[in-house]
Amino acid sequence: MPSQIDERLASLAAIDADAALESIRMAGLEDSVWSRVQAKKAAAGAGSAGVRVALTAAALAIGLAFGALHQPAHQPARAHVAELGVLSEDGLLAPSVRLGGGA
Question: Which pLDDT belongs to residue 41?
Answer without folding.
Answer: 86
